[in-house]
Structure formats: C-alpha cells, structure tokens
Design a protein that fits this description.
It comes from Hydrogenophaga taeniospiralis CCUG 15921. It contains 18 helices and two strands. By secondary structure, the chain is mainly alpha-helical. Among the domains are: 106 residues, Serine Threonine Protein Phosphatase 5, Tetratricopeptide repeat (Alpha Horseshoe); 35 residues. Helix 12 runs antiparallel to helix 13 and helix 16 runs antiparallel to helix 17.
C-alpha cells in the first residue's frame, strides 16, 4: 500500500495549530495566575495598612498559594501570624522556609531568627534558646545574644547571663558593666540563701570592684558584714557608697544611722547626711538625721527645716506626730488621716513603666528594666 502524502500535508499544520493553541492556553493561564497573585498581595497590604490583620492573612495565604516559591510572602505571613498570637502557624511557616533547599544563606538566617522569635513570644524558652544559638556568626548574632540575655534573666540563670553580657560587652554592643555587677549581686544573694557566706562576700567584692558606681553592691556588702557582726566594716561600706554613688544615699540613710549608733560614729554619719541634705533635701535623709538627734526637739527641728525648703506631706505628718496638742482625740484623728494620705507618696515609681511599689527594686517587676527606680520616693519626683 502506497503512503499518501496528502495526510502528511494536512497533519503537520493541524499538529502545529494544536500545539500553538495549547501554548496560548498555558500562557493565558499563567498570565491570569500572575495577575491574581499581585492582586492578592496588594489586597493584603491594604488590609495590613488598615490594621485588619485577619483579612490580610487570608489575602497573603491566597498569594502564597498562587506563588509558593516567594520567600517574602512567607516572611510576611509568618510575621502576621506571630503578631496575631497564632504562634503554631507562624512556626510552621518559618520551618517550611528553612526546609527549602533553594533558600539563600541570608534568607535562611532571617527565617531562623523569625523562628526563634516565634518560640520566644510563645514562651517556649528552651526551643527559643536552641534556635538563637544557631544564629552565631550570622548578621542576627547581636539580636540573638540580647534575646538570650533576656531568657537567662527571666529564668534567673545568672552565670549564663553573665557570660552573654561579657560577650556583648566585648563585641561593643553597649556597656554591660553595671548589668554584670547586678548579676554578681544576684549570685551573692543565692549563695547567702545557701549559707555560703564566704562565696557571697567574694561575689560582692567582685561586684564593687567591677562597678563601684552601683550602690547595690555596697549596700549588700554592708548588710552582709553587719549580719556577721562587723558593724565597723559595714559602716565603711556605706561610707564608700557615699563616695562612689552619692545619689543613692537616701536608700542607705537609715542603715547608715543605725550603724553609726552601733559604732559610736554619729558625728561622721551626720556629716555625710548633712552634706547630701545641703544639696538636695530628701525624706529618708531627713528621717535618718532626726534619728541621730539628741532629743525630740532637735528631731522636730529637722522636719521643720525640711518643710522650710521643700513642701512635703510626709514630713508634715512626721512633725505632727511629735507635737502635743491640747485635744488628744483631734490630734489622733488628724494624724491618722495624714498618714493615710501620705502613704502613697512614700512609694517608689519605675521611671520606665510607672510601676509603683512600697520597696525599692533594682530590677522592675513590671517591665524588667534595671536601675529604673530612682532613689527618691514618689513625693520627691
């Protein structure tokens, strides 16, 4: 049977037409998907600018489905999940990015950092710590070290916190001298609770040598020596505080007065207190000087002297307590009302977050900031 060339002549144009039609169909579909992905992306941005996070997430999910290889969309989606508090989905997005073999080194480090933040925000500190350690040598190393420092402070792992702070200090990421001294003081408190007084004294000695400008070290050292029966050494520690951290004297004024009485160094203590008082009147310093007075009249004159330079409801209450009025019932009622009114004024307030407390804190319980509590009380701010 002879081959009919007519079929070939008809078949070739037909095959070409079918191939061309198929390619046009694919091109058309690709263009349609390409148009839809940017639309979803820009729609997501619009929702994000209008603070509509749920709608933005839906739009970005649609955009990612249209173009699953786009890393930037995954980063945006993961960050949105984390901001909304949907940490499980944020972790899945960033773990999916890390599983991609075609991801660049820069984007891989970025995804690792984002994953560590997911764990940190979710409160999974052990997994966050492991993720942050993987960022050593990357562009995110500085941020990772700061996050690790926050983790160790939160878990009260002071030796590890000290190690990280030393690395940050050496890397010139800021001055961590005072922070390191705080860690030494925290370790000393733990040693003291464990009954290891020698270790506590050693750590406090390191703290005051490392950061003599930190009042906490001198106060803790003085307290420890006083507990050991060394009142003179305790007084000397507070005298060093007056030299290196004079602004913190109100915090140590009462202890200084008590130690002065025990050691017979009242005159020296009064000189230190009056030197501070002449520059800036303080409630605690005035009360300490009043406790060193020779009698009630001298003590009341201290309160009046303070009131003459600075109005103070706390000092007025103290002065009235020493006065003898004709009507005892009226005096008792007025005294009680003044004490109640002045009680909030005796508190300390965090300069960073405004958290108020009856006692002074070296680290704010509210915002975790160090040295954010002034040495003066609320009424004096």
């Amino acid at each position: 049977m002879d081959f009919d060339l007519t079929w070939l002549l008809w078949g070739l144009p037909l095959a070409f037409a079918l191939g061309w039609g198929a390619s046009r169909l694919d091109l058309r579909q690709w263009r349609m998907e390409s148009r839809q992905a940017p639309k979803a992306y820009f729609r997501g941005l619009n929702y994000l600018l209008n603070e509509q996070q749920d709608q933005a997430i839906d739009a970005f999910i649609e955009a990612v489905q249209g173009d699953p290889d786009t890393a930037e969309l995954h980063f945006a989606l993961g960050n949105l999940f984390r901001r909304r508090g949907d940490y499980d989905r944020a972790v899945r997005v960033h773990e999916h990015l890390l599983a991609r073999a075609d991801l660049s080194r820069k984007d891989r480090d970025r995804a690792q950092h984002a994953l560590a933040l997911d764990f940190l925000k979710a409160g999974l500190l052990d997994r966050a710590e492991a993720a942050l350690h993987k960022l050593e040598g990357s562009a995110f190393e500085g941020e990772a070290l700061l996050a690790l420092l926050a983790i160790y402070e939160r878990s009260r792992d002071w030796p590890q916190a000290k190690r990280i702070a030393q690395r940050l200090d050496e890397a010139e990421q800021g001055s961590f001298t005072t922070r390191l001294a705080h860690y030494l003081c925290e370790e000393a408190e733990q040693a003291q609770r464990d009954g290891d007084t020698a270790r506590a004294l050693q750590l406090l000695g390191e703290a005051v040598a490392h950061a003599p400008q930190l009042a906490r070290g001198w106060m803790a050292l003085s307290s420890l020596k006083a507990q050991g029966g060394h009142a003179a050494a305790a007084f000397d520690a507070l005298r060093m505080l007056c030299q290196h951290a004079p602004q913190a004297l109100p915090l140590a004024a009462h202890a200084l007065a008590e130690l002065a009485v025990q050691t017979g160094r009242q005159a020296e203590a009064l000189t230190l207190l009056q030197s501070f008082d002449s520059r800036a009147p303080s409630i605690d310093v005035t009360e300490a000087m009043a406790s060193l007075s020779t009698g009630p009249e001298e003590a009341r004159s201290r309160y009046l002297g303070h009131l003459g330079r600075e109005a103070s409801l706390v000092m007025a209450t103290q002065w009235l307590a020493g006065e003898k009025l004709s009507d005892d019932v009226a005096q008792t009622r007025v005294q009680a009302a003044l004490e109640q009114a002045s009680a909030p004024l005796k508190r300390y307030r965090c300069a960073a977050c405004g958290f108020e407390a009856r006692q002074h804190f070296w680290q704010c319980p509210g915002c975790q900031a160090w040295d954010s509590y002034p040495a003066r009380r609320v009424e004096e701010l």
